[in-house]
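fwd from M.: "can u put these together and see what the complex looks like"

so here's what she sent:
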Amino acid sequence: MTFNEQELVKGCKQRNRIAQKQLYDVFGGKLFAICLRYTKNRADAEDVLQDAFIKIYENIDSFRADSPLEYWLRSIVVNTALNHLRQQKYLKELDDIDVHHNGLSDREFTLGNFQMQQLMEMIRELPPGCQTIFNLYAIEGYQHNEIAQMLGISEGTSKSQYSRARTLLQQKLNKEKRFDDGSVQHKQF
Amino acid sequence: MMDPSNINNFEDQWRKALQGASETPPPSVWEGIEARLDKEQEKVVPMWWQSPKVWYAAASIVALLLVGGGLWLSGIETGDKPQVAVSTKPAGVSESESSEAAKKAASPEENLNTERLATASEPPTSLTKPGKQRSADPKTGIARAGGGNAVGKRENAFAKTKNPETEQQGVAVAARVQKPVAGNGSVNEVINTFATPVENTQPVEISVAKVAGNSYAARLADQSQTISAQLLASLPYSDLDVYVQKRHVFFRPQIEIEEPLKEKKPKEYYAGLGLMPASFNPDVQLKEAPMAFSAQSVSQRRATTGSSEARASYAVQTQGGVRLSKHWSVETGISYLRGNSAYEGGGYVLNAYSNLSSNVLENALAGLTTSANSPAADKAAGFNNGALYIDVAKKVSNNYQYLQLPVQAGFTLNPDKKFSYSVLGGMMANFFLVNELESASGEIIRTTASDDIYRGMNWAATTGLRLNYKLSSNWAANLTGSYQKAVSSGFKSNQSLDAHPYLYGVSWSVRYSF
């Protein structure tokens, strides 16, 4: 049997295992991608996903139908990932960094030539603090003041870490491009 | 730092590329989640596991499945038809000595055969024709079903898979044959020993024959095993697993729990308590001037064109209602209405000799009364001669008290939401309690229902609009604007006086639903 979103939530509220499994089947892939973005290895990502789903099932009663389900699920996963990072002490020493712009141009910026896997890998290769803040700011769309509050850091730190992440990513992108064929180069500039 | 104009471009690109990203997690993740959920549920909701009812239900389902499986295996279509399973070493037909005997066979399945209960519904001789019988071999056996026999069918399937060539195979078959018998107590078996001609020289061989009648059985016994196998070719064997689906048993209680929750639509009753500040107007009309006033020709015009004026009033309301459907509800209640008003109607007449005075309303009231004890009665007389009309515009208070009994239907827009709106309409029975009229001399004339001036009960139509705000699942706050208008006169006789009270009010109330 298949459920629509509303029935899925209702089933999960009643602790119906079939509904719980279906919720996992429907959203598990997307949420796992988030876990992968925030962690350093697959094993950690799997742990985060598992913890997040347990939280989801336990707290499904607090879900209000007036907000989109996926948004709610994503926020739980992000919070679980942040907790995980805190436990791993990845977020312990986040300092303000002096970032010098390296002059890399991002005019006509496009990621269309990169595989999603490649991009994920680039993010995961960032230093932990940069990785988290880049995810929160660029992908999840939080503001720097919100991020500062979430991570217990100053807004300036959030900004400088993000700047650093951006520079590092830009460098990675340019490096990748060098190994690409000419058509990509042509497209890029 | 960065060129701000490009920031969005950069982030948008990343967001676009990764926000919808999806990667299938390995199956171990769900397994881990499930294991943890099982643990949680054991801790959190152990009730239904502990309930013996569930176990009884599960046990009965298992029993049903076993019995059902046995019946299914026995093959309804075979009915009384005997099924013959032959296990033979050399060729030969045996006569059975007793219909209720388990015989030992020397073949490897002998042990199994001896375990069977042999109860025959018919003499085994009918199974075979004497002419066809050959020398008996005690090492062969026939298993036959009496009523519904699972054995025959099972063996048939095996016969189809080729005759076993070794003793071990024979044993295996016999062992399988035994299984359903053990599961189904109703199966009776007769074990006969007899021999059938077989070409096969293997030490142990099992062939199965399914026959339509007893005589047919005998004929069939002559035929080769290949034909026997063909006859039974369509009988399925691999469906054995069907009745071992434990998950059905496990998930059933959860599905049962789901249903009552879905049908959570009982009749909803509610009770409320409220206070309604209102503007009440008795709308008293003087149809013709009372005697004392009509005599005063000067006063007539002025005195009889008086009007009522609303003053601050209030009602204390209790209500009870029932929600009939999603939108419709019916409610009733009891309210106490204190309706204050003023009457402005010219001056008053003054008796020059007795100094008695009377305004037009009290004089008219006095004219209506039939009771000598009425406080208004003494105002009736004494103004015919020598009375003066004092022409002043004077307001006198004219206050009423009613007990109200409304019956209203309500139609609610967006029920079940935090805010809902109801349109109300219905009738209201107003039971007259007291009227207090200020006389010209300043004293209060108190008229009660027993004075027979006012009707004990008069009807009013009522309509309203209610704003309902849910405070919790049970409590709600209401703000109701209502309008009531009497459809009949408040006076018993409306010859000279007429009153059609009307009221505007806004009621504040709380409501409890259960």
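replying to her w this: The two ends of chain A are 51 Å apart (CA to CA).
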